[in-house]
Amino acid sequence: MSELTTRTREYYDRVAPTYSEKFHEPLGHIASALKADLGWVGPKLSENAAHAGRQSIKMFDYACGDGAISKTLRPYVSKILAVDLSDSMVAEYNKAAQAAGYGPEKMTAQQGDLFSDEASQSLSDPEYFNFDLVTVGFGLHHAETPVQAVQRLAERLKKGGVCLILDFASGLRESSSDPSTIAVDGFGREEMKRIFEDADLGGGFDYVIIEEPLIYDIRGTRRDMQFFMARGERI
């Protein structure tokens, strides 16, 4: 495990117990942005929203944290398998799922790492492949090699499956509460397009900047952070 990966894991282990409370407002904004156009993410999601989940959708939530994206999309999918680098975040995720009445057959997380050179062996099980939807919420900027990271995610998708990445557009290091965990300062449209295409995820590619920024209090200073959603389908 690299020094960056170790620092990132230790940071999220520390903040996990208070993460949802501390970042309640930005997490709510992220959820609203996702729900605003489910059909943009994937047509099956909007169809399930309209017709009470008729289609089976298997989702992989990587860098899941305590479950912000999973909580937003779970009404529209059949099953969610989630992974995070931090054991403490995984514990918070599973606690929240159980409190909401979801058993592991519907929504569960485990600790693991796909972004390092040596991917976790625990994620080699066949159930961690052939997904309809793979999501990464604000985790790609921790990857030392984003191209390799997205290629690893693409391998988990079935043909025609959707990869959805949310992250910051720029200025991340100066606004982070722990810059030592940041590998990439942000991602523009052309960079994300290249990353997706290199991973054979160029089908239906789109990159959308969310107009209203996320607002964080970083060491007593307000920071407005522009974020984006990018999606592409496995070719």
Automatic annotation (TrEMBL):
<dbReference type="InterPro" id="IPR013217">
    <property type="entry name" value="Methyltransf_12"/>
</dbReference>
<protein>
    <recommendedName>
        <fullName>Methyltransferase type 12 domain-containing protein</fullName>
    </recommendedName>
</protein>
<dbReference type="Pfam" id="PF08242">
    <property type="entry name" value="Methyltransf_12"/>
</dbReference>
<dbReference type="InterPro" id="IPR029063">
    <property type="entry name" value="SAM-dependent_MTases_sf"/>
</dbReference>
<feature type="domain" description="Methyltransferase type 12">
    <location>
        <begin position="61"/>
        <end position="163"/>
    </location>
</feature>
